[in-house]
Design brief:
It is a single chain. The protein is of the alpha+beta class. A hairpin with a 2-residue loop joins strand 12 and strand 13 (330-333). Helix 12 runs antiparallel to helix 18 (463-476) and helix 13 packs across helix 18. The radius of gyration is 37 Å and the shape is elongated. It starts with a helix and ends with a strand.
């Protein structure tokens, strides 16, 4: 009996063991299946993900930043260069104690210690100090700190400090251009980065390999700016701003034929080497970005519209009502009382009442069209960032008094570069130049190559209109004109004064202050340059003729001497032309290589071949004004030059300018039209009420 129980007990134990064993096998099978499924998921389904993740942990690519190309002036003088500096970075995992290590570095190089310690707690890489002098970096190296490393970085340096700062601009810590030419031409100057692949071992040490690509240094950019002229402009501008205790000021000097900017100065200025130390408002290029009511510098546009439409003759007389006129119940005044003045004298003496009367004759639509034609209300296209288009409202939005206000330069917004461009078009015979600051950019071989800018735009204004308008602005700086203080001894000049009121906090002109300006060119017959001088908020004087005109004279006198332009009195022989404002080696950017601009020539008839062949420099463009289409065809067929005729009649406009050296592929554009009579006819000089 007991044996039977024992045998049953043994059979029960064996069954239990067998069951447990089977259960264990089942668990092992399930576990194995789970592992296999997991392995299948990792190695098959998620294969690409984990391979990518592993490569990121093991492989890395270091970007090799290139050196930015230099920026030089028109004569090759450096304005912006790159210098090698040392940067310090840290790997927190390799530091014994990040807090202690970073504190030790801070004892040599001032750093943001709290932020660095916080960053080191959750990052594998931290910048500690960037672009510091080698001597300072050597002191940190002597500390022999673990986890601290050094690398070379390029830093932008401006050797002339604040000279031309608003043109050149500056770059940020990452070597990206943030303003000026540095920003506008960043893709050219910055170069192409290189790539260096590296491997990390188990201890995260870097194992370098051969670079995939080496960095390519940025290209050289040569500006149209002349550092000497820029210096003259900045020094004289600052002197006047300080003397007048003014808010700010601007000066722009430009080649009126090609649009090359020789100098562009803003005051107050800033040092781009330490731009962070200045308020952002100091970085602003106000000569391009701030618009204002131009005041009397807009009056040549009114004169052009009246002359071009044959509405008013130069000797027509207007009653200027001794300095006061009512426009739709609103009283507008002159700066001084005038009686009867001819149209020419109205511009010469800058009479508001007379100009308003002329503006009323012109009418809103025509005045708007001519203002737009002279480039107001739109950007000039200058190759600098942030240019403002200004403000020119359509006549549909004018009020009852707008015709009077706009005629004297109110109720519209302009920039100094727009006003200078308008005056340049008068000086060069009727072409709106495209302002620009870059003359040449180096190619892959390092050779500087001429940049190409759009050709000046022909104004839809008759040649005779421009001719008379030139005499108007010349009279402004003659005896009795408002711009007498702009006269440079020994030189003829032309221009226009401007005294613009500024709307103040009350919403009226009563508490807004003034903007004094003068825009002109010199010499008057064959201009070497055009210039605008503008002072915002002068405290001692506020008239443009007393504040800005003397500044024009001071700068112009020095620039003429620097450019070696002979006085007008030395040119008794008509064949002697004023020397070019530009050295032979610095060609105008809108012309092909080998061509230089020359001044406007008055209209004259030519007989026979007029395109001459200068063996030293090639074909010379003549003055074609007044010729017929048949005569033009004969002239150009003889020299096999490409040309295009526009319109019918006789020549009223031409491109290139008379006297220009022509390259082989230059296309000459000749505009034909009807020469309208503008000078006063008998009976036209009656007094206009």
């Amino acid at each position: 009996m007991s044996r039977i129980r024992y045998q049953k007990s043994q059979r029960g134990s064996a069954g239990l063991l067998r069951t447990r064993f089977q259960f264990a096998l089942l668990l092992c099978f399930i576990w194995t299946c789970v592992i296999l499924l997991k392995l299948f998921y990792i190695q098959v389904i998620r294969h690409d993900y984990y391979v990518t993740r592993a490569n990121k942990q093991r492989n890395a690519v270091i970007t090799l930043y290139p050196e930015r190309g230099p920026i030089i002036d028109r004569k090759g003088r450096p304005l912006a260069i790159s210098v090698q500096m040392v940067s310090i970075y840290g790997v927190p995992e390799e530091m014994k104690d990040p807090s202690t290590t970073l504190t030790a570095v801070n004892s040599v190089v001032p750093v943001e210690l709290k932020e660095l310690i916080k960053a080191a707690s959750h990052r594998s890489f931290v910048w500690i100090a960037r672009k510091i002098p080698q001597q300072t970096a050597d002191k940190v190296k002597l500390l022999n700190l673990s986890g601290i490393y050094f690398t070379q970085e390029s830093r932008r340096f401006y050797p002339n400090k604040d000279l031309a700062a608003h043109i050149i601009g500056f770059v940020g810590m990452d070597n990206k251009g943030l303003s000026g030419v540095e920003h506008q031409y960043d893709s050219v100057v910055c170069g192409v980065p290189g790539k260096l692949p590296v491997l990390r071992d188990a201890k995260k040490r870097l194992l370098l390999s051969n670079p995939h690509s080496l960095p390519t240094a940025g290209r050289t950019v040569q500006l149209t700016i002349d550092a000497a002229i820029q210096h003259i402009a900045e020094v004289e501008l600052k002197s006047v701003v300080d003397e007048q205790r003014a808010e700010s000021g601007a000066v722009i000097i430009m080649n009126p034929y090609t649009g090359e900017i020789l100098a562009l100065a803003n005051e107050p200025a800033f040092n781009p080497n330490v731009y962070q130390e200045y308020a952002p408002s100091r970085w602003k290029n106000r000569a391009l970005q701030d618009y204002y009511e131009p005041g009397s510098t807009f009056k040549p546009v009114v004169a052009a519209a009246a002359l071009d439409r044959n509405l008013v003759a130069p000797d027509d007389v207007f009653d200027c009502q001794y300095g006061s006129i009512s426009v739709s119940g609103h009283i507008m005044k002159d700066h001084k009382p005038f009686g009867n003045l001819t149209f020419r004298q109205i511009i010469q003496k800058s009479s508001n009442v007379g100009t308003i009367k002329v503006g009323m004759i012109v009418g809103p639509q025509s005045l708007f069209e001519y203002a737009s034609a002279f480039g107001f209300g739109k950007k000039t296209g200058i190759d600098l960032p942030g240019e403002a288009p200004g403000m020119l409202r359509h006549p549909d939005k004018w009020s009852a008094i707008s015709i009077g206000a706009i005629s004297i330069g109110q109720e519209l917004g302009v920039t100094p570069i727009q006003v200078l461009r308008m005056m340049s078009s008068i000086s060069n015979g009727g072409f709106l130049p495209i302002p620009h600051t870059v003359a040449k950019i180096s190619d892959s071989t390092g050779s500087l190559r001429q940049t190409v800018f759009p050709q000046p735009q022909a104004l839809p204004v008759k040649h005779e209109t421009i001719t008379v308008l030139r005499t108007f602005v010349e009279s402004v700086v003659d005896e009795g004109g408002s711009g007498l203080a702009a006269v440079i001894p020994g030189y003829s000049a032309a221009g226009k004064t401007g005294t613009a009121q500024v709307i103040g906090p009350s919403g009226s002109y009563s508490d807004g202050g003034y903007i004094a300006s003068f825009v002109g060119y010199v010499p008057a017959q064959k201009p070497a340059f055009a210039m605008i001088a503008l002072i915002r908020g002068p405290k001692k004087e506020h008239y443009g003729g007393r504040v800005a005109a003397p500044l024009f004279r001071k700068i112009g006198q020095q620039v003429l001497k620097y450019l070696d332009i002979p006085p007008d009195q030395e040119q008794n022989n008509p064949a002697i032309q004023v020397a070019s404002a530009f050295p032979r080696e610095s060609k105008a950017t809108v012309f092909p290589e080998g061509m230089e601009p020359v001044a406007y020539a008055p209209p004259e008839r030519h007989h026979g071949p007029v395109i001459t062949d200068d063996k030293a420099s090639g074909l010379v463009m003549p003055s074609l004004y007044g010729l017929t289409a048949g005569e033009i065809v004969k002239i150009f067929s003889r020299v096999n030059k490409p040309f295009r005729l526009l319109g019918t009649g006789t020549v009223v406009k031409q491109w290139p300018f008379p006297g220009t050296l022509l390259s082989q592929d230059d296309l000459c554009i000749i505009t034909l039209g009807t020469a309208g009579e503008i000078l006063a006819q008998p009976g036209q000089n009656a007094v206009r009420k």
